[in-house]
Amino acid sequence: MLITIPDILDAAALTEAKELLAKTGWADGRKTAGPEAAKVKRNEQADLSSRSGTALHTLLNDAIRKNAVFQAAAQPARLSRLLVSRSGEAQGYGTHVDNALMGTGANRIRTDLSFTLFLNDPADYEGGELTIDWAGMIHSMKLEAGSLLLYPSTSLHRVETITSGQRTVCVGWVQSQVRTSEQRDILFDLANLKVSVRASLPEGAPEHLALSKVIANLRRLWSEV
């Protein structure tokens, strides 16, 4: 599934993120790419080990983890460490598939889902669309600042070449508690249905308990712990 989640970062959080970015150093993005991806990757990545970088990582990580829609859609067991990248004129990221495993030792995860959190407005740059080949269709996305796109790590995707301006995003990966996309889709639909039922039926209605039971039992059946 491809899911757009608006307002992961509100206006105040975006302002704080931009202030921290202004204090953070940058390095060649190919340092964090796999051998094949490095051949088509042309961007820079923020140094998140510095004081400002650490504060930025905490800000973004907390906002993503606390978002209810992200939790319902991704069913996250573990998240990778975040990366923040920027691409200027003539830069981008050619077609690639994300590594199946990322990190080392205790931080190693299986990548089930990828996400991109846009940190500046689409009007700030030309080009730079995130283009995803998924389910037999090509999806080209360029979201508002503060919005996140969640998509399968199994898909081929690319960042179109920037023709003017600068694109800044946060990217990361999820190892889900629920391994298959079909099962995650069902649980996400049920979570949305639960919200609708809560709004339309009185508290204590038997439908609430029945739906909670179905969700709990499907998670018990499908979840990896």
Automatic annotation (TrEMBL):
<keyword id="KW-0479">Metal-binding</keyword>
<keyword id="KW-0408">Iron</keyword>
<dbReference type="GO" id="GO:0016706">
    <property type="term" value="F:2-oxoglutarate-dependent dioxygenase activity"/>
</dbReference>
<dbReference type="Pfam" id="PF13640">
    <property type="entry name" value="2OG-FeII_Oxy_3"/>
</dbReference>
<dbReference type="InterPro" id="IPR044862">
    <property type="entry name" value="Pro_4_hyd_alph_FE2OG_OXY"/>
</dbReference>
<dbReference type="GO" id="GO:0005506">
    <property type="term" value="F:iron ion binding"/>
</dbReference>
<feature type="binding site">
    <location>
        <position position="167"/>
    </location>
    <ligand>
        <name>2-oxoglutarate</name>
    </ligand>
</feature>
<feature type="binding site">
    <location>
        <position position="96"/>
    </location>
    <ligand>
        <name>Fe cation</name>
    </ligand>
</feature>
<dbReference type="InterPro" id="IPR006620">
    <property type="entry name" value="Pro_4_hyd_alph"/>
</dbReference>
<dbReference type="GO" id="GO:0006974">
    <property type="term" value="P:DNA damage response"/>
</dbReference>
<feature type="binding site">
    <location>
        <position position="98"/>
    </location>
    <ligand>
        <name>Fe cation</name>
    </ligand>
</feature>
<feature type="region of interest" description="Disordered">
    <location>
        <begin position="30"/>
        <end position="49"/>
    </location>
</feature>
<dbReference type="GO" id="GO:0006879">
    <property type="term" value="P:intracellular iron ion homeostasis"/>
</dbReference>
<keyword id="KW-0223">Dioxygenase</keyword>
<feature type="compositionally biased region" description="Basic and acidic residues">
    <location>
        <begin position="30"/>
        <end position="45"/>
    </location>
</feature>
<dbReference type="InterPro" id="IPR005123">
    <property type="entry name" value="Oxoglu/Fe-dep_dioxygenase_dom"/>
</dbReference>
<keyword id="KW-0560">Oxidoreductase</keyword>
<keyword id="KW-0847">Vitamin C</keyword>
<dbReference type="GO" id="GO:0031418">
    <property type="term" value="F:L-ascorbic acid binding"/>
</dbReference>
<dbReference type="InterPro" id="IPR023550">
    <property type="entry name" value="PKHD_hydroxylase"/>
</dbReference>
<feature type="domain" description="Fe2OG dioxygenase">
    <location>
        <begin position="78"/>
        <end position="176"/>
    </location>
</feature>
<protein>
    <submittedName>
        <fullName>Fe2+-dependent dioxygenase</fullName>
    </submittedName>
</protein>
<feature type="binding site">
    <location>
        <position position="157"/>
    </location>
    <ligand>
        <name>Fe cation</name>
    </ligand>
</feature>
